[in-house]
Every structure is written in C-alpha cells, then in structure tokens.
Design a protein that fits this description.
Shape: globular
Distance between the termini: 54 Å
Largest sheet: 8 strands, mixed
Length: 301
C-alpha cells in the first residue's frame, strides 16, 4: 500500500479551529493509501515528539522560518518514526482561509498520478495581469503554488533537500526601515518589488503601512512570501512538472478519464505551462457573463 506523509504546521489553533479536523476528513478519503500525519506545533518548540497512534505523531516545531522550518522539523520527525513515504502533503493551519475546496480536488487517483509523473501539485495563483516581469534571484515567475496545501513526491523532496529557499531577508531588504521597501541592489526585478510592496501595504487582507514600527513585520513577511514563490521557481528549474489541482480535476472531467489513464502526449503541453493550465480550467465566457450580471444585480439589492 502506498504511503502519504502529511505534515501539518500550526501556531494559532484557537484562530483556525476547524483546520486540523477538516484536514483529517480530507485525507480519510484516500482509502487506497496509508496516511500518517505529523502535527507540528510551532508555538511550543520544546515539545517532545510523541506517537499518538499509528497514523498520528505530534511534535514541537521550529518557528525560526515559520511554516518552512516547521515543515522540515515535521519531515525529519516523520522519517524518524515511520521512514520515507511515497508522497508528502505539506499544510498550514491557514489552508482554509480562501475556502474549503480540497475535498473535491484530492483523491487516490490524483496521488498515483503525481507519483507516476514525479510531479508537485497545489492551488496555483497568478500575479495581477499588469505585472509581467517577476524575477526572484535567477527564477522568472509567472505563477506560484499556494504554499498552504501542496503535494511533493518523495524523489522531489530528496532532490530539493529542504523546503527553505530564502533563509534570510538581508539580501533583499535593509535591516532597519530606510524609507523604502527594498534595497537598491535587491536581486528582485522592479515589477516584483512593486508587486510585493503593493500586496502587503494595500491588497492583502491584513495590509499595513510601512514605517519604523511595522518594518519587522514587513521584513519577516517578505521572507515568507519569497520562500513560497521560490518553491515554484526551484521546481521549474529542476524541470519538475507543476500542476494546478483545479486543472487536473477539469481535465479528468472533460476527458472522462482518470488521470493515470491519460496518454503522456495529452499531458505534454501542460506539464510545464501553468498559464495553459489556468486557461484550460477557466470558466467559459457565458459563465463569466452570467456571474458578472449576478454580481451587478446583487450589488443593487
């Protein structure tokens, strides 16, 4: 029986009360897989690892790099107790913030497909359309996998060695607020700098104004975002196929086939083209028009 290792990192369980129980319900649907969950508590780093039952390990985490260091602590703990798994699911307690859609996207066939393809998968996000040149170090980004819930097969994580790509924000930002978001010689394209600053100071649900008092928060948050986006950059540089979960579901529905039954030539155009995947599963023009009309009507009531 294939094995899935789930590494779940939490810090504010009182804020995300249903996150862990919902995750358990989702992975219970994988009847053809043996699932082992590591519940990592990043608030209590000194907590000793404990085997609760054959399918659940609880341990203190490592909050030095937030969820990224927590995931690595959980992965090492999983190896210690259970050895390697065929695939891993990395999750944060905030994975439900944008909706509970994973129940319809995760199944045993999906995991078998990812193993066969040695591919990663998650929900893929694009930047706003007016940001065209997003460069992080040597990686040119057009999309990125949302890092609150994503699958990585064992050979890929072994090749990566760590999920931490950006251990320090110092190459990108001044240590203290100097009246600007990024250093003049920051290894980020101008478009990318503008996007990141705009996101955190205007568009994010917890947006804040840059100042001396908010600089530490900005400094830390930038590191987390860069680590999230760097995952996709690294996978693409490694020539690892990256898939959007909505695309894989839409492809299976439209072809009326399981993913494992699809011929390789069917997948080839999409394997390394996230924009093509997003276009494939985008709503039709008719659906978009109806939705827009509904929103307009709703706004008048």
């Amino acid at each position: 029986m294939p094995r899935l290792g789930v590494i779940f990192v939490q810090y504010y369980p009182e804020r995300y009360k249903n996150a862990f129980s919902t995750l358990v319900e989702i992975v219970r649907l994988l009847e053809e897989w043996k699932v082992v969950i590591v519940k990592v508590d990043n608030k209590y780093e000194q907590q000793e690892a404990k085997l609760i039952d054959p399918s659940l390990i609880e341990t203190g985490g490592d909050n030095s790099l937030y969820e990224f260091s927590g995931w690595m602590k959980g992965w090492e703990t999983l190896k210690q107790y259970q050895g390697q798994c065929d695939c891993y699911l990395f999750v944060t307690e905030a994975f439900l913030v944008y909706g509970d859609e994973y129940r319809d996207l995760v199944n045993s066939n999906l995991l078998q497909f990812l193993i066969t393809e040695s591919a990663v998968a998650g929900l893929v996000d694009p930047p706003p359309a007016d940001f065209k040149n997003l460069r992080l170090l040597d990686w040119q980004l057009t999309h990125w996998v949302r890092s609150s819930f994503y699958f990585v097969p064992h050979p890929v994580i072994l090749q990566m060695k760590t999920l931490v790509s950006i251990p320090d924000t110092a190459p990108f930002c001044d240590q203290h607020y100097e009246g600007r978001a990024f250093k003049l010689d920051s290894p980020l394209s101008h478009d990318y700098q503008v996007y990141l600053e705009q996101w955190l100071t205007r568009d994010w649900h917890s947006a804040f104004t840059l100042s001396d008092t908010t600089w530490e928060r900005f400094y830390s948050k930038i590191r987390s975002i860069l680590n999230e986006h760097a995952l996709t950059g690294r996978w693409q540089a490694m020539a690892v196929p990256v898939y959007d979960l909505h695309f894989l579901k839409a492809l299976g529905n439209k072809t009326k086939s399981t993913l494992s039954e699809l011929p390789p030539e069917k997948m080839e155009p999409y394997r390394h083209d996230l924009q093509l995947q997003k276009d494939y599963c985008a709503p039709s023009l008719a659906v978009r028009v109806v939705k827009k009309i509904g929103n307009l009507i709703g706004g008048r009531i």
